[in-house]
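Budget justification aside, the reviewers requested a transparent look at the raw inputs and outputs of the sequence design task funded under Objective 1. We therefore reproduce one unedited record. The lines immediately below are the C-alpha cells for a 440-residue chain.
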C-alpha cells in the first residue's frame, strides 16, 4: 500500500506504516524503514501548523497580561474579569468533548480554519471592552482552541506515514505551544506600547483571519505533496458514526487510561502553578519581580522537557518506550512537587521547580505520542478528548489545591496534588500493561 493511498486513516492502530505487517519489501526490511526527519526539516514542513498553534495561545495571554486596564475600561472589577476567564475552560471542555468525533470526519485543515475563524471573531469582540463582549470573548476563545489544537496536532501527525515521525510531529506542535506560553507575554507587551491592548487583539484577529483562509484553501487541495496521503484520502475512507467513534476509541487498549493520565497530570501541574507565587512569597519572601525569574525557569524547563522527550520517542530504535518514559516522568514530577513544598532552602527549591516542569513536560510528550500511535484514524477524536480532559484538569487542580492549602497549608497542597500525581502513576502502569499495537 503506497503512501499516497494509505495515510493514518487507513488503520485503527496506525502501525501498518512501520510495523512488521507493512506491505512491500521495504517494510519487511527494518534497515529500509524511512528515517525520522530532523527537527529543522520538520519545522520547515510544519511551520503553518506551528504558527497557528502559537497564535491560538495569544488571545488569553493578552487578556491575562492586560487584565487590570481591561477591567478599568470595561467597568468590571479585576476579580469579575478573572472569573470570566474560567468560561473559556468550560467552553473548551464542552466543545472539545461534543465535537471530538467530528475532528476525524472533516479535513483537518478545515477544522483548523474553523477554529481560527472563531478566534478571529473572539479577538474582535474582545476589543470592544464591554463586559458582555468580554464574556463572549472568553467563551469563544475556549471553544476555538478546543477545535484548533487537536486539529493542528492530528494534521501535523498525518503528514508522516512513519509512526515515529508522526509522533514527533505532534510533539513539535505541543512544544511550540509551551514555548509560546513562555514568550507570549513580553511579545504582546512590546507592540502594546505602540497601539495598546486593543491593537494587540485587532492584530490577532487579522492574523487568525489570514491563517484561517490559508488552511481553508489548503484543505480544498486534493493532494498534499509533503503529506503521507491523509489529505487525499479523507473522503475515500468510510468513517464511523458519531457515537461509534467514542465506542471504538474506548475499546482501544490503554487509550482511556492515557486520557485520564493527561487530565490528572494537568490538574496536579496547574494546581501547583496556581499557588507557586504565593509559596515563594511566604517561604522565601520573593516579590513578584524576582519571582518572574522562577516562572521563567519553570516555563523553560517545561519547554525543553517536552522538546527532548518528544525527540527521544521519535527515534527508530528508541532505548526507552513511551510507556516507561511516562512512568519515569510521573515519578520525577511527584518527588519534585512534594519536595518543593517541603523544602526550606531556596537553592534546593529552584532545581526542584525545574524538575517539576521537566517531569510534567515529559509525561505530556509521552501521552501525545502514545495517543497518535495507538489511535490511528481516530487520533483526532482522541486528541480532542485529551484536550477537553486537560481543560477539566485545570479547574480540578486549582480547586483541590486550594482545598489542600486551606486545610493543611502548603503541605496540604502537596498532599492533594501529590495524590493526583500518584493516581496518574497507577494509571500509567495500566497503560504499560495494556496490549501494544502491532509493530509498536
Amino acid at each position: 500500500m503506497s503512501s499516497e493511498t494509505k495515510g493514518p486513516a487507513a488503520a485503527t492502530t496506525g502501525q501498518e506504516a512501520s510495523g512488521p505487517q507493512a506491505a512491500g519489501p521495504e517494510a519487511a526490511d527494518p534497515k529500509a524503514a524511512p528515517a525520522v526527519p530532523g527537527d529543522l526539516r520538520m519545522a520547515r514542513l510544519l511551520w503553518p501548523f506551528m504558527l497557528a498553534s502559537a497564535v491560538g495561545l495569544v488571545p488569553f495571554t493578552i487578556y491575562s497580561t492586560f487584565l487590570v486596564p481591561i477591567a478599568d475600561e470595561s467597568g468590571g472589577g479585576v476579580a469579575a474579569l478573572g472569573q470570566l476567564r474560567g468560561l473559556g475552560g468550560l467552553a473548551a471542555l464542552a466543545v472539545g468533548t461534543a465535537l471530538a468525533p467530528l475532528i476525524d470526519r472533516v479535513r483537518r485543515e478545515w477544522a483548523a480554519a474553523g477554529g481560527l475563524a472563531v478566534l478571529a471573531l473572539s479577538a474582535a469582540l474582545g476589543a470592544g471592552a464591554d463586559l458582555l463582549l468580554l464574556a463572549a470573548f472568553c467563551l469563544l476563545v475556549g471553544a476555538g482552541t478546543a477545535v484548533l489544537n487537536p486539529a493542528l496536532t492530528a494534521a501535523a501527525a498525518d503528514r508522516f506515514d512513519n509512526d515515529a515521525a508522526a509522533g514527533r510531529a505532534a510533539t513539535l506542535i505541543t512544544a511550540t505551544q509551551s514555548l509560546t506560553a513562555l514568550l507570549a507575554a513580553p511579545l504582546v507587551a512590546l507592540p502594546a506600547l505602540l497601539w495598546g491592548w486593543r491593537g494587540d487583539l485587532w492584530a490577532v484577529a487579522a492574523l487568525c483571519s489570514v491563517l484561517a483562509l490559508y488552511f481553508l484553501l489548503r484543505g480544498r487541495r486534493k493532494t498534499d505533496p509533503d503529506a503521507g496521503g491523509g489529505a487525499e484520502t479523507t473522503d475515500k475512507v468510510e468513517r464511523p458514526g458519531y457515537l461509534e467513534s467514542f465506542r471504538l476509541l474506548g475499546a482501544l487498549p490503554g487509550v482511556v487510561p492515557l486520557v485520564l493520565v493527561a487530565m490528572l497530570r494537568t490538574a496536579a501541574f496547574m494546581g501547583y502553578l496556581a499557588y507557586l507565587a504565593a509559596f515563594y512569597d511566604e517561604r522565601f519572601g520573593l516579590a513578584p519581580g524576582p519571582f518572574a525569574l522562577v516562572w521563567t525557569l519553570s516555563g523553560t524547563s517545561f519547554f525543553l522537557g517536552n522538546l527532548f522527550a518528544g525527540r527521544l520517542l521519535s527515534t527508530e530504535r528508541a532505548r526507552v518506550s513511551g510507556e516507561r518514559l511516562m512512568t519515569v516522568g510521573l515519578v520525577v514530577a511527584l518527588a519534585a512537587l512534594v519536595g518543593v513544598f517541603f523544602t526550606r532552602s531556596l537553592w534546593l527549591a529552584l532545581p526542584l521547580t525545574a524538575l517539576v516542569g521537566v517531569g510534567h513536560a515529559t509525561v505530556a510528550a509521552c501521552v501525545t505520542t502514545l495517543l497518535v500511535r495507538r489511535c490511528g484514524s481516530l487520533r483526532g477524536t482522541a486528541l480532542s478528548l485529551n484536550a477537553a480532559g486537560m481543560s477539566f484538569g485545570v479547574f480540578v487542580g486549582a480547586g483541590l489545591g486550594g482545598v489542600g492549602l486551606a486545610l493543611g497549608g502548603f503541605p496540604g497542597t502537596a498532599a492533594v496534588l501529590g495524590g493526583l500525581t500518584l493516581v496518574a502513576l497507577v494509571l500509567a502502569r495500566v497503560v504499560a500493561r495494556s496490549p501494544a499495537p502491532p509493530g509498536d
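The mean pLDDT is 80. The two ends are 19 Å apart (CA to CA). Computational costs for records of this kind are itemized in the attached budget.
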